[in-house]
Design goal:
Helix 2 (about 65-75) links the parallel strand 2 (about 35-40) and strand 3. The strands form 4 sheets. The chain has a 6-stranded mixed β-sheet with strand order 5-4-3-2-1-15. The chain has a 5-stranded mixed β-sheet with strand order 8-9-10-11-14, with helices on one face. A two-stranded antiparallel sheet has the order 6-7. The protein has 5 helices and 15 strands. Helix 1 (about 15-30) packs parallel to helix 2 (about 65-75). By secondary structure, it is of the alpha/beta class. The radius of gyration is 18 Å and the shape is globular. It has helices at about 15-30, 65-75, 160-165, 180-195, 245-255; strands at about 1-10, 35-40, 80-85, 95-100, 110-115, 120, 125, 140, 145-150, 170-175, 200-205, 205-210, 210-215, 220, 235-245.
Length: about 280
């Protein structure tokens, strides 16, 4: 079955309300171009505040933006994936770097929380967010099985494999990459697509924010690790891709990467005592 996807590669301003309104406008355009599923950028309602070593999330809550995105999804009959800061009511002092999944009726299907938080120059996320917990969800978006790996999560290949084993046919990867790292990211994500025989849609932030120059160049890779189309440029864009789940089935039949696994030898992957080059016991 075929699905048309769109990624909104948009520049963020210092005004969250203006950003939300702009993303709604671009989502409407994507819907008129035939998109059934629309992905927004990582932390889409704000500029990239984790670039600072110390500070606070420049929002009171995610709820107003979520309500607007829900109304947008319903108005245009699209599935909408909206990555933004999440502040659960149960803990007013805790924030997650999350992606909200909304169906064409405007209902919240679920939330994916970023698990792995970097602490690097320009990416001081450990000072702002709590890591997500629990199993990685796979969402049914109109029959398409979709997983989400937010930016740094993609450098931990276990996540993509777990999503594939749970039936994912597509992984959305909203990223906030700068510093001319596009070749590194392309190699990383195309290898995930190939090794797990699924589609992988990378949506990168774009625009200059202080020392951070987000370069865009979003793309979609197919289940053989090949690009569906040439990557987008480094300006605002609506990145479209049509995918076919029959190709997922064909790739898995041809390569047998999932069928030929040997789980009995992978035990050390789940052993917290093994890591940082420490050899497994035995």
């Amino acid at each position: 079955m075929q699905y048309t996807l769109a990624g909104i590669q948009a520049v963020a301003t210092a005004d969250p309300a203006r950003n939300v309104a702009h993303l709604v406008q671009l989502t409407e355009i994507a819907a008129t171009r035939g998109a059934a599923i629309v992905l927004l950028p990582q932390l889409c309602t704000t500029q990239w505040f984790p670039a600072r070593q110390n500070g606070g999330v420049p929002l009171e809550s995610h709820r107003d933006a979520l309500a607007t995105f829900q109304a947008c999804a319903k108005a245009h009959s699209v599935h909408l994936v909206a990555p933004m800061p999440e502040r659960p009511r149960k803990n007013r002092h805790e924030w997650f770097n999350s992606a909200f999944v909304i169906d064409p009726d405007g209902k919240l299907v679920g939330i994916q929380q970023k698990r792995h938080l970097p602490d690097l120059d320009g990416y001081r996320e450990k000072g702002y967010f709590t890591p997500g917990q629990g199993p990685l969800p796979v969402f049914d978006l109109g029959g398409l099985r979709v997983g989400i790996q937010i930016c740094w999560d993609n450098y931990f290949p276990e996540g993509a494999r777990l999503l594939a084993l749970a039936g994912a046919q597509l992984i959305f990867a909203p990223t906030a990459a700068a510093f001319d790292s596009q070749e590194r990211w392309r190699g990383l994500l195309c290898s995930h697509a190939l090794c797990n025989n699924l589609y992988l849609f990378r949506l990168n932030r774009v625009g200059e924010e202080g020392a951070m120059a987000f370069y865009g160049q979003s793309f979609c890779a197919d289940p053989f690790g090949e690009l569906v189309a040439e990557p987008a440029g480094s300006t605002e864009a609506i990145v479209m891709a049509t995918i076919d789940t029959d190709q997922v089935d064909e790739a898995r039949r041809v390569t047998r990467f999932l069928a030929d696994r040997q789980p009995e030898i992978y035990g050390p992957l789940a052993d917290p005592a093994v890591g940082n080059g420490t050899p497994a016991a035995g």
